[in-house]
From TrEMBL:
Subcellular location, principal: nucleus
GO terms of biological process kind: axonogenesis; neuron fate specification; positive regulation of transcription by RNA polymerase II
Record key words, sorted: Developmental protein, LIM domain, Metal-binding, Zinc
Keyword flag Transit peptide: no
Short name of one Pfam family: LIM
Gene Ontology CC terms, in alphabetical order: nucleus
The LIM zinc-binding domain, residue ranges: 5-67, 68-129
Protein name: ISL2 protein
Subcellular location: Nucleus
One annotated GO molecular function: cis-regulatory region sequence-specific DNA binding
């Protein structure tokens, strides 16, 4: 198909003997498939991620679009263990009481107020039997 495809990077016709196809409908000149953020060439040796028609290397895609710790705002690596509270995700070392700084461990009762985690000692008992009406924090 060389000569028929249009490059998603530069928009020009691909007449080269080789092209890179990243998804069923996006094709690039070999020299045009670069990370939209850092410019690193993306080929068969480098993982490529697409977002809104733009290609990214793994590092930049994770930095820009990956889930980040609700406390320190840093991205997670694939080997990180995490803690979750509602829709927030934390590094283990960041899962701490905002008032006293104590690290919260699996099984500890806590409260999430706005973005602040509070241990049982700092958030006190639930008001007016609220524990009977809703699920307990993990």
């Amino acid at each position: 198909r060389p000569g028929l495809a249009l490059c998603a990077g530069c928009g020009g016709r691909i007449q080269d003997p080789f092209l890179l196809r990243v998804s069923p409908d996006l094709e690039w000149h070999v020299a045009c498939l670069k990370c939209a953020e850092c410019g690193q060439l993306l080929d068969e040796t480098c993982t490529c991620f697409l977002r809104d028609g733009k290609a990214y290397c793994k590092r930049d895609y994770s930095r820009l679009f990956g889930i980040k710790c609700a406390q320190c705002r840093a991205a997670f690596s694939s080997s990180d263990l995490v803690m979750r509270a509602r829709d927030h995700v934390y590094h283990l070392e960041c899962f701490r009481c905002a008032a006293c700084g104590r690290q919260l461990l699996p099984g500890d009762q806590f409260c999430l107020r706005e973005r602040d985690l509070l241990c049982r000692a700092d958030h006190g008992p639930p008001p007016d039997g609220a524990a009977a009406r809703g699920p307990r924090s993990p």
